[in-house]
Specification:
Mean pLDDT of chain B: 86
Number of strands of chain A: 0
Order of helices and strands of chain B: HHEEEHHHHHEEHHHHHHEEEHHHH
Shape of chain B: globular
Low-confidence stretches of chain A: none
CATH architecture of the largest domain in chain B: Orthogonal Bundle
Radius of gyration of chain B: 23 Å
Helix content of chain A: over 70%
Number of domains of chain B: 2
Strand content of chain A: under 5%
Largest sheet of chain B: 3 strands, antiparallel
Mean pLDDT of chain A: 83
Oligomer: heterodimer
Distance between the termini of chain B: 51 Å
Chain lengths: 424, 383
């Protein structure tokens, strides 16, 4: 047993490559728990950040600064009465949230949180992710249809049309990144780890590759991914002011919370794809400008240090509380102690090399998640026909143009050779 | 089973039509719906997302305000009118008081007139702020709501300091005002004017040039001027269609004839123009406030009105420019202490009639935008 742990800790491949089913299983459990925790954290963060954008405080009552609010909500949803409408198609109604949640979580199988931190490294990783995440539409249509009600039906129809059309632009943007992986080696890769390694080998994140091209493709992807996950300003399927709650109008309690979980997991999943494709996945920032072993060491210390800073923030908050012996203060201090301990562990030599990959990956995903919240606080909602117009008439041509230009720029030497050779 | 495959019951005209062509979806929007601004029920006949027809069902908030008026004395009925358009309670009270004053043939003294103008213009800004916040929320912009309510709070504070109430103020009495201004009233209003103008720019920054906002509101719910007049639509909705009709200029009441302000009008009569007109109206209201505060004279605030109001036999119609349009009162007096009949012409009720004309052929999302842009308050529609 100890041997197995040791050999794994020293290995430099994913459990899937190593063929270790035990480790793969443990990874799956860890990722499922981690994503659930991230959804809970995201729930709290979204409410807090949105609240501060809107001159409100957000949740403040349950726990220090409302930190326990998501848990209270989860508890409330679990003990709520489970209502299935009388005229609903029970089997489909029951299975729709399961389908949506399953697909949202399955995509994380191939997400590389680090060189060794992925369940497996599929050679068709990108296609797998796209395919699985498209299956989520199925669950939404099932939910809308089986509810036997007008609002959910319209919401699910909108959703399916929207997700299918934005997948086209999304696919074009992804092909750009895949094309870029083939530049030095001559053979491209669809493996998620391969794509990050290609960025490492070429010494540039694909967002900066061929300057406006990589950036444009990334922007197309970033817009399409918001539409793909039905978030503001493309949140028509659940447009509150029009369709009440869209496809999950008839859902309540635990089933509703599964939809909620799936929505945020899907947001995390597409953000992970974006980070992998454009922002260098788990690679640390400034690899070229600040290179060398000293900088490597400095950057590997950042995860632990940032956790220590968070712990310090918690302790400062505890001291500023009016009464130190109340549950809120004790809770915050405990959290601070826990976070600080984690930070200290992450500073250890053996741990920090393995943890920093995850840290940088998560930090980059957090940037995209913040953008999601920011859009929600700023933009009004598109109308359905305008949404389609943006998808087919704006994003698709831009995606196609960027794709063609990327191919041309990537092949410029060969093209030049042909032109020059032809003129001779 | 054999019957359903024939599809006879769907009444198909041609054979190439499928059963999908023959079905129209009837969607029941409200009375419990996030964006019908209360308890309005709209029955929509839809073809996919396209609106084929609408039917408004109202009356869910009917309290019989007009009938109550017949059983109360003139003074006792005054607070009831605040409950009609509860977003702009001050304007309601002003309209009622002026109508009874017209019946009694008295006029409020100049100082009272100025206080009334200041209060109603503050109320107009507050009402437009509620409209802006909820309208933007309907179209999906969450943040303007909170900005608008933050700034409306300052107006409510002035109301509270003046008459003790924030929403249903009952600020005026028949014959003038009962409350003298508090110390620092003028400064508060001036401070509000300087505070509010930059905030208005802030709202505009979020919306006016926002691409999504413009595409969502331009050419949505277009009302031609002749349609407006035919339907009796008044207020900012009428002015956005290009008709320069504002009762403050057309039939000046109180001290509006001495004040210098403009009537903003639109060109296209679409939702975007109505938005611009209301924003411009808020700026004009600030202008009126600044002048009125400077000119406020000293003197009595109450005209000579008998303790027991017994108007002569007769009938009178008087209307004022409320934030939402022409608010008219028709009062019939039989010479007793109670009105024989009170009839209110509420702007929201009349403006709501235009909904069907405005949304026919548009999409479901536009219905929500149009209900928001009409700025209806169901308390006033149903009374």
């Amino acid at each position: 047993m100890l041997e197995a742990i040791k050999t794994y800790l020293n290995s430099s491949v994913t459990p899937g490559e190593a063929g270790s089913q035990l480790w793969a299983l443990m990874y799956i459990v860890a990722i499922t728990l981690g994503i659930s925790l991230a959804v809970i954290a995201m729930n709290w963060l979204e409410r807090k950040i949105l609240a501060h954008m809107q001159i409100r405080l957000g949740p403040m009552r349950v726990g220090p600064h409302g930190l326990l609010q998501p848990f209270a909500d989860a508890l409330k949803l679990l003990i709520k009465e489970d209502i299935i409408p009388a005229n609903a198609d029970k089997l489909v109604f029951w299975s729709a949230p399961v389908v949506v949640t399953m697909t949202a979580f399955t995509t994380f199988l191939v997400v590389p949180f680090g060189r060794t931190h992925a369940v497996t490294d599929m050679n068709i990783g990108v296609l797998f992710m796209l395919g699985i995440s498209s299956l989520g539409v199925l669950g939404i249509i099932m939910a809308g249809w089986s509810s036997n009600s007008h609002y959910p039906l319209m919401g699910s129809l909108r959703s399916s049309a929207q997700m299918v059309s934005y997948e086209v632009a999304m696919g074009l943007a992804i092909v750009c990144a895949v094309l870029m992986t083939s530049l030095q080696t001559g053979t491209g890769t669809l493996s998620m780890i391969g794509i990050v390694e290609a960025q490492q080998a070429q010494g540039v994140w694909f967002i900066f590759k061929f300057f406006p091209l990589g950036f444009l493709a990334c922007v197309v992807f970033a817009i399409a991914m918001i539409a793909e996950t039905n978030r503001a300003p493309f949140d028509l399927p659940e447009a509150e002011s029009e369709l009440v709650a869209g496809f999950h109008t008839e859902y309540s309690g635990f089933r509703w919370s599964l939809f909620f979980l799936a929505e945020y997991a899907a947001m995390l999943a597409v953000s992970s794809i974006a980070v992998t494709l454009w922002l260098g996945g788990w690679l640390r920032p400034f690899p070229n400008l600040l290179s060398g072993p000293t900088w490597d060491l400095a950057f590997s210390l950042i995860p632990g240090l940032s956790f220590l800073v968070m712990a310090a923030g918690c302790f400062l908050g505890t001291i500023r509380m009016p009464k130190l012996l109340r549950l809120q203060a004790i809770g915050l201090a405990t959290l601070g102690g826990f976070v600080g301990l984690l930070g200290l562990v992450m500073l250890l030599a053996g741990v920090r090399e393995r943890v920093q990959d995850i840290f940088w990956f998560v930090a980059k995903v957090a940037v995209f998640m913040y953008l999601y919240i920011w859009y929600r606080g700023t933009f009004p909602r598109y109308r359905f026909d305008q949404l389609m117009k943006v998808g087919w008439k704006v994003l698709l041509p831009i995606g196609l143009g960027v794709l063609i230009l990327t191919a041309l720029v990537g092949m410029r030497q060969e093209l030049l050779a042909v032109v020059v050779g032809g003129s001779r | 089973m054999s019957d359903s495959t024939k599809l006879d019951y769907l009444d198909l005209e041609s054979k190439d039509k499928t059963f999908l062509d023959s079905t129209e979806l009837v969607l029941n929007m409200g009375p419990q719906h996030p964006s019908t601004h209360g308890v309005l029920r709209v029955i929509l006949k839809l073809d996919g997302e396209k609106v084929l027809g609408t039917e408004c069902v109202i009356g869910y908030l009917h309290r019989g305000v007009e009938k109550i008026g017949e059983n109360r004395t003139y003074a006792m009925f005054n607070p009831y009118v605040d409950r009609m358009d509860y977003v702009a309670a001050v304007s309601n009270g002003l309209g009622y008081c002026e109508t009874v004053e017209k019946l009694l043939n008295v006029e409020a003294p100049p100082r009272a007139q100025h206080i009334r103008v200041i209060m109603t213009e503050l109320c107009r800004i507050a009402s437009h702020q509620v409209w802006l916040g909820t309208h933007a929320l309907d179209i999906g912009a969450l943040t303007p709501l909170f900005y608008a309510f933050r700034d409306r709070e300052e107006i409510l504070k002035i109301f509270e300091k003046y008459c003790g109430a924030r929403l249903t103020t009952h600020a005026f009495r028949i014959g003038g005002c009962i409350y003298e201004t508090y110390d620092g009233f003028e400064q508060d209003v001036k401070k509000y004017c300087t505070f509010f103008l930059p905030k208005l720019d802030e709202y505009e920054e979020l919306l006016t040039t926002n691409r999504i906002w413009v595409t969502r509101t331009k050419n949505v719910g277009v009302l031609k001027p002749e349609d407006c007049i035919a339907l009796g639509v008044t207020g900012p909705v009428l002015r956005a269609s290009g008709v320069k009709w504002d009762l403050r200029k057309a039939q000046p009441y109180e001290c509006y004839k001495d004040l210098d302000f403009e009537i903003p009008t639109g060109l296209n009569g679409d939702t975007y123009d109505r938005y611009l007109v209301r924003i411009a109206e808020m700026r004009q209201s600030v202008r009126i406030l600044q002048q009125a505060v400077e000119r406020i004279p000293s003197g009595p605030i109450m005209a000579k009105v008998p303790k027991v109001i017994k108007p002569p036999v007769g009938e009178v119609y008087h209307s004022i420019e409320a934030p939402k349009g022409e608010l008219g009162y028709f009062i019939v007096s039989d010479g007793s202490t109670q009105p024989y009949r009170v009839r209110v012409r509420p702007p929201s009720f009349v403006n709501l009639q235009a909904l069907g004309t405005m949304v026919r052929g548009m999409l479901v999302a536009d219905v929500v935008a149009v209900i928001g842009t009409l700025d209806i308050v169901l308390g006033e529609v149903d009374r």
